[in-house]
Write a structure and sequence with these properties.
Elements (H helix, E strand, L loop, with lengths): L1 H37 L4 H5 L5 H18 L10 H12 L19 E3 L17 E3 L7 E3 L3 E3 L9 H14 L2 E3 L7 H6 L2 E6 L15 H8 L4 E7 L11 E2 L6 H7 L7 E2 L10 H15 L3 E6 L4 H13 L7 E5 L10 H6 L4 H14 L7 E5 L5 H10 L3 E4 L1 H6 L22 H4 L4 H25 L13 E4 L5 E3 H4 L12
Parallel strand pairs: 4-13, 5-6, 6-7, 7-10, 10-11, 11-12, 12-13
Antiparallel strand pairs: 1-14, 2-3, 8-9, 14-15
Helix pairs in contact: 4-16, 5-16, 9-10, 13-16
The site of flavin mononucleotide has 29 residues, from helix 14.
């Protein structure tokens, strides 16, 4: 009898709860209905009250559903699943071979193919990647064998554990890490990587009270032996003509202190260096930074108009080759960013396929190819893309998003919102917990080493002992008629010097 009573009580309670929940739901729907039909901002919600709201939710979820269920392996942008999976597997150190055959369609215009040699390089003839010297005329030139390096991402755009993992991973892999425009943090140094300090237009980390470049601060940065080079950022591919943007929510006390700006406010850098108006101004600034720091100094830019590059070369020849930038980093129009306006991301600047040959050939025409090293960046996250750039004439390839994938980035595209689910681009401590710097440093190392190793594999298949011997003739690109053409026919090299190992 007692049992029946308790069952009845539970049932009554459940029924009451049910009525309460349904009642609350109906009430909520009624409130939302009234809000929707009376508001005037959203047509969909006004015409389809309550139901119209699901559109926004589905739109948001669609990003994830497409990625997991609907998008084909080679379909998504900016990076498709095949590319991302390659990076994930390389970073985890799991088997990166594929079975049965290629799922890559070799027919579309622009497809690159490498020309294998009938007599590939024998294992015993493999040579280590040649060392290059950057900045032979400065006090402390930088020597490196690394081909594949970590491109600029500021501490601010990315989190403390991300910087730590990248810096440690770079040290273990023997590649360099660029600070991006946010200044030098203790975490860059803690990891022990070779650091390229970037001087952005706001001069974060090396600015005086008035926001101008400070020689004293430059000197302080150069006191760190880990800082091997300085890079003046003229522009980056994702936002040419626009300075960096770090939303106020990401400007923590520490980031503000490193940058020399107020905390909690949007950190927006000017759209160019006010000291650099022309070729002379550019070389003056390069000379100044090199004099104060004793380190190699170069600049980063996305190419759009290009007559100015001829002016820079002519000015170098007039002043003497010591005055030249020690390196140029050419960024692709489709490069990544923490945050940028869509009109600039999508429409301004030339992609690396066009700009890299143009820069290399301009330097060659002026006899400066040996003196000025060239780094290329822009969606080159797998060995084939890196090998393409080396064939065209780059000495180095830098990647930002490739290394983000090695840290576990799932391409959720929320880098500007401080809500990154993988802890890479957020300062939210709870989300950062998922990113273990020690574990991820190993992944960074494996990824960097794997890329370098497979570029070597491509070189050997093409019959040369090491990647720096790759030339344009080793790579072909599919044209409109379906046939491929060698890069040295597509971009005939002007006669001149080449900095690569002979
Ligand atoms: C989160 C994030 C932050 C970045 N911050 C900078 C920066 O501070 N300075 C800079 O020159 N480039 C910055 N970049 C651009 C990259 O350095 C790189 O040039 C570009 O993303 C192309 O390389 P990728 O295609 O391998 O990402 C940033 C990119 C990302 C994704
Ligand atoms: S997971 Fe998303 S938000 Fe985080 S870094 Fe990757 S793309 Fe940006």
């Amino acid at each position: 009898m007692q049992q029946i009573e308790s069952v009845t009580t539970i049932l009554l309670f459940m029924a009451g709860l049910f009525i309460l929940v349904v009642g609350a739901g109906v009430l909520l729907a009624a409130v939302l209905f009234v809000i929707d039909v009376t508001q005037t901002k959203h047509a969909i919600r006004r015409n389809f009250p309550v139901i119209g709201r699901f559109r926004y939710w589905f739109e948001h979820l669609g990003e994830f559903f497409r990625q997991y269920f609907f998008a084909l392996d080679r379909e998504e942008m900016p990076f498709n699943r095949a590319e991302r999976s390659w990076v994930y597997r390389a970073a985890k150190g799991v088997d990166n071979t594929v079975a049965f055959g290629s799922s890559r369609d070799l027919r579309p215009v622009g497809t690159t193919l490498f020309v294998n040699c009938p007599y590939p390089t024998l294992d015993e003839d493999f040579a280590p990647t040649a060392e290059l010297v950057i900045g032979p005329y400065c006090e402390q030139p930088y020597r490196t064998r690394s081909i594949f390096n970590i491109s600029g991402m500021s501490f601010g755009a990315i989190s403390k554990p991300a910087v730590l993992a990248l810096s440690n991973g770079a040290r273990m892999a023997g590649c360099w890490m660029n600070t991006g425009e946010g200044g030098l943090s203790p975490y860059h140094l803690e990891g022990g990587a070779d650091i390229v300090f970037q001087i952005g237009t706001a001069k974060y980390g090396v600015r005086d009270e008035a926001g101008d470049l400070s020689d004293a601060k430059l000197g302080e940065v150069a006191e760190h032996a880990a800082v091997k080079m300085f890079e003046i950022k003229l522009s980056q591919g994702a936002k040419p003509g626009k300075g960096g943007i770090l939303p106020g929510g990401k400007v923590t006390q520490q980031i503000a202190q490193i940058r020399g700006i107020p905390a909690g406010q949007d950190s927006i850098s000017p759209n160019r260096h006010k000291e650099i108006n022309d070729a002379a101004g550019l070389l003056d600034m390069i000379g100044r930074v090199r004099r104060v720091t004793g380190r190699p100094v170069g600049f980063k830019t996305v190419i759009g108009a290009y007559g100015w590059l001829d002016e820079v070369c002519a000015e170098i020849l007039a002043r003497g080759i010591e005055s030249a930038p020690d390196f140029i980093t050419v960024d692709s129009a489709d490069g990544g960013t923490g945050a940028a306006p869509m009109s600039l991301i999508d429409y301004v600047g030339l992609p690396i396929r066009e700009s890299l040959p143009l820069v290399v050939d301009t330097l060659t025409r002026y006899g400066l190819r040996e003196r000025i090293k060239v780094a290329a960046s822009g969606k080159m996250i797998t060995p084939a893309e890196v090998a393409w750039a080396i064939c065209v004439g780059a000495d180095f390839v830098n990647s930002a998003r490739g290394f983000m994938f090695s840290l576990g980035c799932i391409q959720a595209l929320q880098c500007n919102k401080n809500t990154c689910p993988t802890g890479i681009t957020t300062h939210n401590k709870r989300l950062q917990r998922g990113l273990n710097p020690a574990d991820k440093a190993e992944r960074v190392r494996r990824y960097a080493e794997h890329v370098q190793h497979e570029v070597e594999v491509i070189a050997h298949s093409c019959g040369v002992p090491q990647p720096r011997r790759l030339r344009r003739m080793h790579c072909r690109v599919v044209m409109e008629d379906g046939k491929s053409i060698a890069l040295d026919e597509l971009y005939p090299e002007p006669p001149g010097l080449t900095s690569k190992a002979a």
